Records
---
Amino acid sequence: MSVLVVGSVAYDTLETPAGRAEKILGGSASYFALAASYFTDVNMVGVVGDDFGPEQMSAFEGRRINLEGLEHAPGKTFHWQGKYSTDLNSRETICTDLNVFEHFKPKLPESYRKSDRLFLGNIEPSLQRDVLEQVDAPQLVGCDTMNLWINHRLEELKKTLAKVEVLLINDSEARELAGDWNVIRAARKIRAMGPKTLIIKKGEHGALLFQEDSCFLASAFPLEHVKDPTGAGDSFAGGLMGYLDQSGSHDEATFRQAVIMGSTVASFCCEDFGVERLLTLKQDEIHERFHEFASMVHFDRLPLK
Amino acid sequence: MSVLVVGSVAYDTLETPAGRAEKILGGSASYFALAASYFTDVNMVGVVGDDFGPEQMSAFEGRRINLEGLEHAPGKTFHWQGKYSTDLNSRETICTDLNVFEHFKPKLPESYRKSDRLFLGNIEPSLQRDVLEQVDAPQLVGCDTMNLWINHRLEELKKTLAKVEVLLINDSEARELAGDWNVIRAARKIRAMGPKTLIIKKGEHGALLFQEDSCFLASAFPLEHVKDPTGAGDSFAGGLMGYLDQSGSHDEATFRQAVIMGSTVASFCCEDFGVERLLTLKQDEIHERFHEFASMVHFDRLPLK
């Protein structure tokens, strides 16, 4: 079993109410790969510059992460700088230096073509399809996107959506993509664009899983101390896809567990800056929090009439 | 078993994306009483003016609602006018005419003094205590409040909070009352003010129930068509307190069911303007939606390690 992920590998400079971190490891593929590696083998696809040395690489080493597809290009690594609001519910981008990421054309190593599951991280939609076409016969294809592509590459995005089974998107993006403020109606419209499974992420308010006629309501695991929410969505995706790959099943019950697993891993991610917490996390901690989560949402059914 | 509620009885003029309604029945006590009456006997305390005739009274008749404590005063009934935003997540008050509600001094009929449970709706905090003192030995006292009292009657509010077991409050009010944007920390601070049970309402994002060391995460029932969210919080409170009174238990498991019951009744309330849907609701519909709710949040636990 293996999951392939394509996305950004970056240096992030972050400011949150808990402090500041300078040029730390970030990027959607980094968070996804670290999260998913707790469950399965990950084939990582991305690009870094000359300034990404052995020290940075070491974060991925000694884990179930295949780095053959991580290209080293001449130039600097993608750098993003952001600042969060006091309540962490919004953030402002201070600068985005695409650097080597600007002309990134993902080329998959031969060994990646047999990947069982695929996650097309948030990159330009036609590039997402380029990656998809390089994999032989994936059993499940998930993707992410963002408002930039919804607003400026809608036709390309729709072509990608027609080819994926699972879309992960946040609530404001879902409303924008569907042109409907009601998430239930928005979900129906988005599922008609292709993805049979739609997961709408609502940050601290949880996530909604839509499949056929069913809707699963997932809360978020409540945290008293959030240091840095960067990468929570990508860790969610990594935990979700990793768990699905490990389980080898795509039925509704497994998807529901996978959503809770994604939330669980994402909650750990927020406890420290950047990928720090994902580097020290233990299998037992994940397992224990999953159970705690289950207890926190449990209630007894009423007797049937 | 009986629940006493004190609060406003009003005429509301509402504008939502679904339409407009002119001078329809509203007020916190009205929504609460109608919701709770599906579960138990309700002793209603409030005031109306000369313009509140038999037609308006008929909404409460033929139900488990005792109207002996609904005072008829000379003057006009409280009138509130509001307009909702397109996504229904915010509303603007266009006018508030307190009228007979301005000098309301709740006096309980003799028959109300034996009420088992008490809900102090959103009125001035010292008036809430006046009502509390008129009841002999309530088994459970719940209350609601709002930012007006948090900002302008904080000391009075704290005296009330010291005397109640259950506080229902929305998330922005909880943050304001505690002076902490993190709801988990805010919950701890508010519970230290008195109420052992705290329910933080998050509208379409559900509710959180805090008791001792436990936190219960409740989603909201998702609705595709919301006509009017007015009274959802009061219907939630009515469903919750009504269910607790019917059950006769205050243990954690019953409280969790009561929160889901409150959400269930509140979801019906939003389906039509004002109290309309609460007037036509059937027991079976409530029961069925509670079960649907349970199915929508269910996921299988992982095997224990």
---
Amino acid sequence: MTAQIISVGTELLLGDILNTNAQFLSRELAALGISVLQQHTVGDNHGRLEELVEEAKRRSDILIFTGGLGPTEDDLTKETVAACFHDALRFDEEAYRQIQDHYARTGRTMTPNNRKQAMVPVRGQKLPNSQGTAPGAWFEDDGCLAILMPGVPWEMEAMWKEQVYPRLCQKAGCVLHSLVLRVQGGESWIDSQVGHLFESENPTAAIYCKAGECIIRITARQADEESARKSCREYAQKFYEILGTAIYDEDVPGIEHTVIRLLTEKGKKAATAESCTGGLVAQRLTAVPGASEVFHFGFVTYADEAKHKLLGVSEHTLETCTAVSPETAAQMAAGAKSAAGADYAVSLTGIAGPGGGTPQRPVGLVYLGGACPEGVWVKKLMLGQRSRDVIRQWASQQALDLLRRMILGQPVPDARLYSPEEVEQSRQTPFES
Amino acid sequence: MTAQIISVGTELLLGDILNTNAQFLSRELAALGISVLQQHTVGDNHGRLEELVEEAKRRSDILIFTGGLGPTEDDLTKETVAACFHDALRFDEEAYRQIQDHYARTGRTMTPNNRKQAMVPVRGQKLPNSQGTAPGAWFEDDGCLAILMPGVPWEMEAMWKEQVYPRLCQKAGCVLHSLVLRVQGGESWIDSQVGHLFESENPTAAIYCKAGECIIRITARQADEESARKSCREYAQKFYEILGTAIYDEDVPGIEHTVIRLLTEKGKKAATAESCTGGLVAQRLTAVPGASEVFHFGFVTYADEAKHKLLGVSEHTLETCTAVSPETAAQMAAGAKSAAGADYAVSLTGIAGPGGGTPQRPVGLVYLGGACPEGVWVKKLMLGQRSRDVIRQWASQQALDLLRRMILGQPVPDARLYSPEEVEQSRQTPFES
């Protein structure tokens, strides 16, 4: 089956808003095994829309529209598509009542032109809108399907999940199940390890990369939910066999959620001590609801004075080793753990750029410290000539992974564990390298 | 003049990436006074691309392509468009040398198929790529123009600014000048004040809103740079007359840049004390290069114990007034200013949700404190039933605006200034309300 996505709205053609609907629908259709041939964006213009619909109808099995369902004269998607699909529109009492209810609930006054939104297909079906006023529509003609949804992203996504997706599954005689693996590491490393697993047709696996981590989405298409779930799980196992503990979690929005969950499960507390990331790690942790139970103290020690005063980093270390050194990172983490009375603490100190780099300490050099009951892990990152923002994101991701591994008692790759005595000694004498 | 935007790339049709290029180009073309009739996305398929180009060429003066200029067999935009525009391609030594240089600079090995990227129009023009390997192309045929640029957003944006935009201006016999006003406040308030100023045709003014602030972009089209600049400035003046000090800056990426600039200019230092935002304000400030000169200390005091221990908030206040109170906000700010030895400090304490709300202290209630030489400002925000993320963003924006107004010595709207003595007294007795 093939599809085309048609977004209607002059505000898209003016660049006032970003078309995220087209990406959402493309991804969902790909998962359903439906090929998207083209995406189009047109304005609220009857002639051009009609021409486009007639052409698209000749070429594809399914046309998916978003936008143009509003109450104003400009909004003419429904009328135009109805005509192209040899259907007509009728006034629907129930839809009108729902629109009235929606206005009453949100305390707004309804205008007469809202009657237009209550027009639904005569032969086709209406698609209820659980998030707004305009119902969607479903037309069929000559083996071709037209599905009309609102342009507001959350209304469209809800209608897709509640109304459209189940109907398309039924039509295709299948169900889908998806599973998302979150993997610590850069794209090229992950691709070199598991690149061959992205070739599969069912289940499919797709990779999306962010600073310092990748998201792998596995989707299986089967006759029933149980088989789809099983097929997903079996395919995920192939990734676990190769990537091991680099897979930090499943179906979470980010590693900070994993860390907060682990701390909560184990009844432990963590603290942060940040220089180059300036509060980014603390901010990510506290973005998770419930973080207040397990994260009480964060230190943003941007100046040497702050590192000394709040975290007890030795002035001798700051002078002789500088602030960007394994010794400073270790003392920051140890100091934060102790000042906060926490079970774990992570620290970051480095050169985020664009200025401040030297040949010995280039932009992108970051030291992480990780204090745990056994001592302090120190890890050196060379994040290269990336932007300040990407360096900070990448470093924060690595710090959260260090925290995760400490809580789980896992070894930390490419890092060294110093004993509490060695950290204490580093106040006078640098670590041996 | 009318244009169509054609994005080429199977990854777009699969939903793997979001099409930000179409929005960028639509906005730029609108500013140039060129109407975008349609946007299309097609895969790397010769037949479908050819059909689309032939149709689009009949309907518009300018076709703008992004993507499909890479070195692989799949990338066939240039060949297809050349044929539709009755042009041919030739091997270009200079372009080839630039590709070789780019590979040498980035330490990668060139493959034979990179020769394909050095093919340029015979009758048309090549468009140098300052950010990557693939040059763009410019074809003209029968009064219609085809402009081919890479799909990678930063390569495309650079080529647009350096090569395409100047040529289109010359063709249109005009220049553009833009100016961006950053305004503190929500969309409905700003729209109620200056909504009528968005109707103008030249200069145009467009508004984009983010949490707690809006961005107003004014663009003037004139025969020369000087007149365009003047026309922009005059139109901006109309906004200043109505919005006054709510306009916090021009042409900056965000209020944190304004705050760091002001602190640097005045040789002052600021500190932060955050509860509900958990480091977000510190993180925003330290995202600005050079922040280290004026921001030395940040405190993330998520627990009551941390507020007492690090900032000296009175235990009596935490018990009787609770952590989410004007007294706590004031003492946090005063404590941070003093502990950091800073000139200014801002504090935030509130309920970000989704849990933790009560009828007296609902989700979205946030108190800001602002310590300055004259005393401590306290401001109460009611951010309502928004998401945790939006509440935190909104609160951080307000805190940075409070900091800005203190540095400038401006009054803070809807806030109250307590004297140092009143703040001291609040450790024993709540503020009078």
